[in-house]
Each structure stands twice: as structure tokens, then as C-alpha cells.
Specification:
The structure holds 2 protein chains of 2 kinds.
Chain A: H1 7-12, H2 14-25, E1 28-29, H3 30-34, H4 41-53, E2 57-62, E3 65-70, H5 72-105
Antiparallel strand pairs in A: 1-3, 2-3
Chain B: E1 6-8, E2 15-22, H1 26-34, H2 36-43, E3 45-50, E4 56-63, E5 69-80, E6 84-91, E7 99-107, E8 113-120, H3 124-136, H4 141-153
Antiparallel strand pairs in B: 1-2, 2-8, 3-4, 4-5, 5-6, 6-7, 7-8
């Protein structure tokens, strides 16, 4: 298994994004997170493992339970890094699409 | 219908991949890249030169809100209608090294298409610097325009 995970790949997955949004509101155990998804428990565990490897989530032992916390610093780092660049291209491409649709109707 | 632009920038790699699906037939998407008057509209640049052929040159000039001109240019290496454009890209008057761009156009259905743009940089450090450029150097007026448009939609 590839342990060196890519953070952008991690947030590209819709289930993992959903997990991040969920955990952002409060720290949760793997079981509590899994209860929110129809996917099998091992699949959710796999997602949690990937998010932890990328440091988007951190684990904290509390008694016998392990709680997952969101790593705000890392999340911000990722968002700030790529988002303006993505927005720039998104804007250009939205325009391209709007302009070319006019040609389509002609 | 919302079609989002995705950027794939893998850690430690000196390339990025920009992917976007369009609600347009592939021939219209391709046209947006080869007709100067159309390029000018969506890129927000002046097209000084655009030779759509192998070894053809292009040169575009963007003007920022302060009136400063930012010319960029390059040479087209591969040109296959409705399929691909391979070209170099250089920001004139900046220390940034030349980059290589592979643009791949493909039909998804008869009415929709996809563009995959692979950009190769001289190094990982250069790539990371350029990714932060729209933010760091305030040349993100395109971004600001997007916000204006989006706000009007609301």
C-alpha cells in the first residue's frame, strides 16, 4: 500500500470531503463517522486512514476511544494554496462556455 | 448545470493537470482556442499573434487594472484540430522559466466536451510559485471578475 498520500487526491474524493465537513463541526470516533454513511465500515476506516496520513485529520486518544479532529491549519494551507489559481481558470472557462454557447445557437 | 474546473497538483511533482468539462460540442471548444477575437473575450487579453500550426508563434498581452501590460508568448509544436495543441508558454519580463503545455480536447457526448491541460514546469519550486501567483502578485483580476459575476447571479 502506498503510504505517501497526496493531499489533493485526498480532498478530491466526495466521501472524504463529506467526512471532513462532518468532523469539522465536532471531533468524532470512527464508529460515529461511519454511522453517517451507507458505505461499509472498512471503507470508511480506509478514508479515515488516508485523511490522517495527509494530516487533514488528527487522532486523539480519550479513554478507550480514538477521536478524529480536523486539522484546521492543514486545511487552510491546502485551500489557500490552490484555490485562487483554480478560480482563475474556472472564471476563464465559464466565460469561454458562455461565449461559445452563442455560436451554438447561430 | 455546474461544471467545475479541477486542478490536480500532486505533491512533489513539477506538473499540474487542469480538467474541465464543457456544455459545448468539442469543435466549439476548440474554436475558442484558435479564433483571436474569441480568445480575446474569454482570456481577457489582446491577441497580437496566433499562428495555429506546428512551429507557429503566439503572443498575447494582458493589461491589469493598473494599466500594466503583461505579455506572454510561445510556440505551437503540435496542432491537431479538435484534438490537441502542444505549446510552450513564457511570461515575458518575468524570471519564470518557460513552461510546456499539453492541451487535449475530447468529445464526451455530441453536445459536451472535456479539456485536459497538462502543464509541465522547470521544477517543483517553480510550479508551487506559479500556483500561488494569482494570489500573491495581485494579478487575480480574473478572480475578482468571477466574484462580480457570481454576486450578480445571486
Amino acid at each position: 500500500m502506498n503510504l505517501r498520500r497526496d493531499v489533493f487526491q485526498a480532498i478530491a474524493d466526495p466521501t472524504r470531503r463529506a467526512i471532513l465537513i462532518l468532523v469539522a463541526t465536532q471531533a468524532m470516533t470512527a464508529g460515529a463517522i461511519a454511522a453517517n454513511f451507507d458505505t461499509a465500515r472498512p471503507t470508511v476506516s480506509k478514508h479515515l486512514q488516508i485523511l490522517t496520513e495527509c494530516e487533514l485529520l488528527t487522532q486523539q486518544q480519550s479513554g478507550r476511544e480514538i477521536y478524529y479532529h480536523i486539522n484546521g491549519r492543514k486545511m487552510k494551507e491546502v485551500a489557500d494554496f490552490i484555490e485562487p489559481f483554480r478560480q482563475m481558470w474556472d472564471d476563464r472557462f465559464n466565460k469561454l462556455e458562455t461565449i461559445m454557447k452563442q455560436y451554438k445557437t447561430k | 448545470m455546474e461544471r467545475k474546473t479541477r486542478i490536480h497538483a500532486e505533491d512533489g511533482k513539477q506538473e499540474i493537470i487542469i480538467t474541465r468539462e464543457f456544455d459545448l460540442p468539442v469543435d466549439l471548444l476548440f474554436r475558442a482556442y484558435i479564433e483571436p477575437e474569441i480568445v480575446e473575450q474569454w482570456m481577457g487579453t489582446k491577441v497580437h499573434q496566433l499562428e495555429n500550426r506546428p512551429q507557429g508563434a503566439y503572443r498575447f498581452v494582458t493589461t491589469d487594472p493598473k494599466g500594466n501590460e503583461h505579455p506572454f508568448c510561445g510556440v505551437i509544436h503540435e496542432f491537431v484540430t479538435d484534438e490537441k495543441i502542444t505549446r510552450t508558454f513564457e511570461m515575458e519580463g518575468t524570471p519564470f522559466p518557460v513552461q510546456l503545455e499539453y492541451l487535449q480536447f475530447e468529445a464526451v457526448t455530441t453536445e459536451t466536451s472535456r479539456l485536459v491541460m497538462q502543464v509541465v514546469y522547470k521544477s517543483v519550486a517553480v510550479r508551487d510559485q506559479i500556483l500561488q501567483l494569482p494570489f500573491a502578485q495581485g494579478i487575480n483580476w480574473a478572480h475578482n471578475r468571477l466574484e462580480e459575476i457570481v454576486n450578480k447571479l445571486k
